[in-house]
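The protein record reproduced below.
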Amino acid sequence: MRKIRKRLPSPAMVVALIALFSSLGGVSYGLAKGAINGREVKNRSLSGQDLRKNSVGGQVIQESDLGTVPSAAISGQTSGATHFAAVSTEGLPLQNRGVLSTFKIGEDGDYQVVFNKLITNCAYTATIASETGVASALRGQIGVGLAASDNRALVVQTTNASGAPAKRPFHVAVFC
C-alpha cells in the first residue's frame, strides 16, 4: 500500500487566508452589529430603503430643519378649531381666540360674534353652556349661522327648553 502524504500550505498562504477571513468577518460583524457610524457614510448616500424601520425617530430629527407640511400651510393651522368664543348671557366674551367682538342683539337670546377673518368657507358649531355649573342652565336650543351683513360674523340664537327666546351662555367654534 502506498502512503499518501498531504502537503501543508506555505506559511505565506496561511497568513493570507487568515487576513482574508478576518477582513470579511470584521466587515460583516460591523454591519450586523450597527458598528458603522456617520463618519463612515457619505452624506446623502443613504435612502429610505437603507434604514431599518422605526430606526430614525424624533430624538434624531431636528424639527427646525423640517419645512411646513403643505396642507398645514394652506390653512395656517395643524388641527382643531381655528377660532372660538365662550360667551356669557349678557353677550360678553369669557374666553376666545381670533374674536374681535361679541355682543347681545336685543333682549332675548340673539347674539353676534365677530371674528378677525372671513369665515365664509369655514364650518362652525355652537352649544349652550353653563356659566354657573348648574345643569338646568343647559336646557334649551341654539342655532348659529353666518351674518348677512358681515362675512366675519356669526349670529347665534338661544331659547329655553320650551323654545321661547331666552338668554343663554354659549360656546361657538369655527373650523377652517
Observations:
- Residues 48 and 171 are 46 Å apart (CA to CA).
- Helices lie at 11-33, 70-75.
- The first strand starts at residue 83 and ends at 87.
- The mean pLDDT is 78.
